[in-house]
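Troubleshooting: if your tokenizer reports a length mismatch, compare your output against this known-good record of 1014 residues.
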Amino acid sequence: MTTATRRGILAVVTSLVLLALGLGLGVVVGDALGIRTEPAAQMEPAAPAASGLGAPVPAPETLDIDAPEGVRYDAAIASLREAVDAASTREGEVSITVLAGAGDESDDTYRLAGTPSALRIEAGSETGAVRALYDLAYQARTAQSLSARLGDEVASRLPFRMVDMGAVGVEPDPAAWEVGTNYSHASEAFADVLLPEAPYIDDAALAVVFDDFDVFLRHSLENGYNAVAFPGFIEFVAFEDVADGEVSASDDEHRAQALALRDAFGPFWQHADDLGMDVFLRTDMLTLTTPLEEYLTSRFGSLDTENPELWEVYAAGLDELYAAQPALDGVLIRIGEAGDVYDVEGWDYYSQLAVRTPEAVRAMLTTLSAQAEAGGREVIFRTWSVGVGAVGDMHTNPASYEEVLGGIDSPALVVSTKYTLGDFYSWLPLNDTLEQGQQRRIVEFQSRREFENFGAFPNDLGREYQYALQTLLDANPRIEGVWVWTQDGGPWRAGPMTLYLKSGFWQLYELDTVVASALARDPGADVADVTAGWARQWFSDDPATVAAITTAMDVSREAIEQGMYIEAFADQRVFAIGLEPPPMMWIFEWDILTGDSAVLDVLYAISRDATGGDIESVIAGGREAVRTVEAMRDAVAGTDAATWRDPALRDAFVGTLDYELDVLRLLGAYRAMILHQGQWHDTLSPEAYAQWDADRVAYEELAAAHLAAYEGDLDYPAFNLTAAQLGVERAERDLPMAWLARVLLALAAAWVVIGMLAARTSLVRRPGAAAARATWIASTRPWRARESTLGVLELDRWLLLIVPGALLVATRAVQTSFLSWTHLAVVFGAWAVFAVVVRLCVGRRSPWPVIAAVGGVVVLRCIVTLFALSFSGPGGYWFAFWTEPVFRTAYIAIAFALFVWVFVAAGWAMSAQVGARRATGSVLAAVGASLAIPAVVVGAIGLETALSLWNDEMGLLPWGLARILGITTYLEIPPETPWLAAAFGAVLFAVGALLAVPWRRAARADRAAGADRA
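Known-good structure output:
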């Protein structure tokens, strides 16, 4: 067998190995993307029904109440009198006698006896008697008869009904909302109260907030709630009784702050307790201060959350706090979110996502539940979590729930879970993890739906809540309560400035707070009556006006579900990158209309497959939503203004429907545009392209009008259209880039063909043909690189460098639509470093053999990319990557094989000049340097910053990802990755340099041979 034959066989084998590796890499990439869907069982709420409240009933003109003395009675009686005094019509006299026993104070059962004019409340406890008074106040506020339940025994199905803190302590500062891009989850409650230095509390501001808290508590009691989640924990603990000394020195400001804050807010908790509200401190875990983190690290070596002794430190803190503040009833713990987005600037209180394993959760709950049992308190643990593994999906995966929580059955432990199988989105199934477990359970609801424009649109969730509670209670008798978020969830200042009980049209989402409580007390309650009662309380008791409002609210969910979601995508469970993306990915958290290829291409593909390719039916859902809101607006706007209790509320209602109509028209146009864009990439149909272009014009007109009307509006803020516009700009370039790719592909193919033909014909004597021949031979048979460049003229030598270099620049520019200079800088910077190092290693020998080899492979690699770009431009390239597994795998296999072949060819070409060892070392050194230097630059800039800049230009992942969650956080990329890459590159460089330098024993022979090889 000749040497040439052996080399040819080796080259073929090497190529096949590289293709196999590339194929394996393609499979790994596809597996990592993990894009798949599975059917989702949708909730099945009852159809809308007419209210049976009947005609409004006047409140009594005279009200005489005989009740025991006490703070709770005083508050309930005040609520009843205020409701009666505010009634639009009053007549007659009613007396109420309150009789309460000394029974179980956790039982709010009562019986309404007597006559319509002489009512008698009979309750086994003060709690029941007070509840009866609040119920009578509700009857008066909703223009219903006080004697409607005469003769009935009234009991609550779920005894525990908790609310968040609403907007207590949050200042409605227009300047903070005008920007609209503050995605911090910190409420900044009590910002005016807290001082950075001693005495740490502004007493005047504290008094104002106390009144704020009092109003919220009384209102929540009126709505049927009996517990409140108060933010904070670590802020109130001095850690004076830990096992082996002090967490911080006696003169440390953290200790002084904790004692000052505890003393300041202790009266708040006591006041809530006096009014009959349980108080739970709401905290993330791990929650830390600098001294506490230093103490834990010093004592345990790290923040080892699997060590029960670490949790004993927190248990000691709770013991200390409960001893000082007996009004506290327990702690509410979340482990699934933490970090900077929740921290308050200027205060050394922060949290970390450190509880990541089942063992850590179990150590935490076992220790803290035992502490709660001993102290007569409770621990509420939220299953809401993010990340990978059992802890990451225990909120939605029954097997993971059991792995994390199975067997932990402390009577002091309560597990809290959102009713949806995910976050508070529409189209999600009922969370079946609420049907399992031995623990006590509570169900979480959200009134001001953060993902559905923060409650700025009518959104009557009553029938969905009812379906959820009835289904879950039938399945799990251990459910004993609800937790309703009246205000919280998501960023506080990125949406409308609606603050519960304070500013904006908060009455709109008050309905969901009221109906959640009503259903917790009676899951069979008539939700139509609750909606009508809400309309009577806040807007009008005119039957026609109430009917118009309830009619609009009846279909409000349909408008949300069809207008803000794309049903064909949203009604399936989608999985990607080991996570379960939410059903509203095209509107990225929370008001960003996204323009990235990953989301929009996958959304199109799933919608296409779900409808058998009927994209027009998917687009029609947006138009249907618009028609629904038009009917809602007509109904409300058609009411008689004189029948409304407050003209400003009528204006707000009509205004919010105008706003919703504008938004849904905008979303409908964008939906049509992105789906037709996907259809063009998918089918290459000229008709689809023409439809996309028409949709683009319509969308841009609506977008301009939307921004002109609502940008800077505090009540109806404009959506963030930056990412969408970036997507439009990229899409506009797709067809021109496709034509450029076709031209470049033809030129590159011609260069290769000339090279192939010139090797065997007289064409080689034409200008440039010799260079083409050299690159073809050197790239496919690199051991002949030196031979192929012998006798090449000066012009042809420069073409060896210029043609591949220019093609590489042009290909990458087209691939990025001339929009990502970051991408080009990194790619060309790496290639430049590689070329410089190789040139230095070649030394005095001719560089043209290796230039020909590398340049020839670069041309082949560019041809592969240009072929992929030639169909419908960069958009089509990425569409196929995200949605076509076969294409993606084949492309990766070929592209990877050619990429690695660059270095194989370079080393092979050099080996004829410097020997195999030194050639290998030269290539390794060049690869190491071309990896290390860009990695150092990225590390110096910051990985998150660099990735965000690159992604903004490329539009691959959601634009909002960097601004809200962080790309590295979301994808769990360690921030030290560039430094690790740089270190690996440095090692490669060092090894390569060691192999590349002449060794002493071979130096003389090498020098002798060098003259012949030069």
